[in-house]
Write a structure and sequence with these properties.
Helix content: over 70%
Radius of gyration: 32 Å
Distance between the termini: 41 Å
Largest sheet: none
Low-confidence stretches: none
Number of domains: 1
Structural class: mainly alpha
Order of helices and strands: HHHH
Mean pLDDT: 80
């Protein structure tokens, strides 16, 4: 009886270890695919972040220019061309630079709203919905 019992026990142990191996292999395959997706999207995100940095830098530079023009009032050229008083010339130039910095800021805001990893976030949402559906189904 012992030889028959030991033969019957071996296939069940083998199938349990095989199922664990298959589960680990599936998990590692899933993890590898997610990391590949993250790698692809990180390239796109790098370009997106570069654009954001350039827009932010532009916004800061134009705003600093606005402050310099408004505080220093060195606008001899505008004053001599339009024959305005120097204070009004400084205000006009400061207003133009403020308008440019606001436009750059609005563009920056709309670029910042764009999600960085849209495909990965969508996949995680699908996975979360699938898990909640599976959890509800099992209960």
């Amino acid at each position: 009886m012992d030889p028959d019992g030991s033969l019957g026990a071996q296939p069940s142990k083998q199938s349990a270890s095989d199922s664990v191996r298959n589960l680990v292999a599936t998990f590692l395959s899933y993890l590898e695919l997610r990391l590949r997706l993250l790698g692809l999207e990180s390239k796109e995100a790098g370009f997106h972040l570069l654009i954001l940095a350039l827009l932010f830098t532009g916004t800061v530079v134009f705003f600093a220019g606005f402050l310099v023009m408004l505080i220093v009032f060195l606008l001899y050229l505008v004053t001599s061309l339009f024959h305005w008083e120097w204070g009004w010339s400084a205000l006009a130039c400061g207003g133009v630079l403020l308008l440019i910095s606001v436009v750059a800021g609005v563009i920056l805001r709309y670029r910042i709203i764009k999600p960085i990893f849209p495909i990965t976030v969508a996949e995680f949402k699908k996975d979360r919905e699938w898990l909640t559906h599976k959890k509800k189904k099992s209960e």
